Amino acid sequence: MSDHPSLQPYADAWTQSIEAISELVKPLAEAEWNRATDCPGWSVRDVVSHVIGIECELLGDPRPIHTLPRDIYHVVDETSRHMEVQVDVRRHHTGPEMTGELEYTIIRRSRQLRNEKRKPDAEVRHVLPGLPPVTLERQLLLRAFDVWVHEQDIRRALRQPGNLDSAAALITRDVLVDGLPRVVAKKAGAPADSAVVIDVSGPVEFMRTVRVDKDGRGSVNGSPSLGPAATLSMGWETYVRLACGRARAEAVAGDVKAEGDAELATAILNAFAVTP
């Protein structure tokens, strides 16, 4: 346990998810590592490579010196290019090589987190390139979120559902909800002095109202709205897939119930992704 108990919930949530990934991939046959996931362009092997790579960078390991092929269609900007390097260098690694490196990385990172001496508000690097530093607490929260999302990528690819209501799932809910005001007010252009209700059911159940003020700024809370401009109802897995860019609105149309302003509802669903 670190010297600061406020960091422990994030470390525990991260541990549960990354150990779940390790257990999921340990028995895979070589061909199963190549199964496509919902994460655009990435196989199960690629997702695991990404997780390993980020954790190694947080351990202080040097980034690989590697030139990416030019024909990787999902590399569209500097962020995706940065992320792809750790993935592409492992594309020819065998299953045993992958599981061995993952297990060793978990051991090293767990030790680092147990021995953490910095305060929760200490300024540390962001894992994405070009973004300003964050607090240590925020960094750990984002790691719990990211690893859980990738755990679910792998679970869907392998058809092994689980941990949909884990501690990291609740952290993920909060991270994704924080992105709703930007989605509704800025990206979808909801009118001033309007409200939009998002109603989610399933293992993680919640209702949030996004309100757009007279200046077009959005905010979100749990209080109900009388006469919202639009209401979107969906299951938790559908919400995660949309908000994390794992599915387009038209692909999950049958899993979403939209009421109110149909044009606004469509604009919101088309702009729902909040992850890079």
TrEMBL record:
SUPFAM superfamilies: DinB/YfiT-like putative metalloenzymes (SSF109854), SCP-like (SSF55718). Pfam families: MDMPI_C, MDMPI_N. Residues 15-155 form the Mycothiol-dependent maleylpyruvate isomerase metal-binding domain. Gene3D superfamilies: dinb family like domain (1.20.120.450). Keywords: Isomerase. Residues 175-265 form the MDMPI C-terminal domain. InterPro entries: DinB/YfiT-like, Maleyloyr_isom, MDMPI_C-term_domain, MDMPI_metal-binding, SCP2_sterol-bd_dom_sf. One of its GO terms (molecular function) is isomerase activity. It comes from the Bacteria. This is Maleylpyruvate isomerase family mycothiol-dependent enzyme. It comes from Streptomyces gossypii.
